[in-house]
Design goal:
Length: 160
């Protein structure tokens, strides 16, 4: 039975990392489930409380990066909160239609269009759209790094 749990833990942790670049797969939540499952399977002894708290915080932080990375970037590029909210909605809808490309293009196109309508300045609009696009792509990289570190830490806990 323990071997099945270990396999499930490793599968959840690996799926978490893969889920960061797979549309509609909650990578951070899968990694969190792997950490908690292992902690439960050891009778709440491993990992220790400090490491457990750190890994849970990293997983929850990754979830925030996933949800708000593009919006923060668009805001940093000068887009209004209204534009960011509408662009996030359009990006999510296009994610279902065209996958990750739909998300990125929907976000960037919506930010550009709404900001151009608001300012009638192609340069400002392109800047905001560029920031949003880079933020979405950078958030994916950050998520891979964060959940990859959770995977490595847990593999060390499990196999050492």
């Amino acid at each position: 039975m323990v071997d099945v749990l270990l396999v499930a833990v490793v599968v959840l942790l690996v799926a978490g990392v893969v889920g960061t670049v797979t549309p509609l797969v909650p990578g951070a939540l899968l990694s969190l489930a792997g950490v908690v499952l292992y902690w439960w399977s050891t009778g709440y002894t491993a990992p220790g409380l400090l490491l457990l708290a750190t890994l849970v915080a990293v997983c929850l932080g990754t979830l925030l990066v996933d949800f708000f990375g593009g919006a923060i970037g668009a805001g940093a590029g000068g887009a209004s909160r209204r534009t960011v909210a509408i662009a996030a909605l359009v990006g999510m809808l296009l994610l279902f239609v065209a996958g990750p490309v739909g998300l990125v293009l929907g976000l960037a196109g919506t930010v550009f269009g709404l900001e151009y309508y608001r300012h009638e300045d192609a340069g400002k609009s392109a800047r905001a759209a560029g920031y949003a696009t880079v933020a979405v792509l950078a958030s994916a990289v950050v998520q891979i790094l964060l959940l990859g570190s959770v995977l490595v830490a847990m593999l060390l806990v499990v196999f050492l």
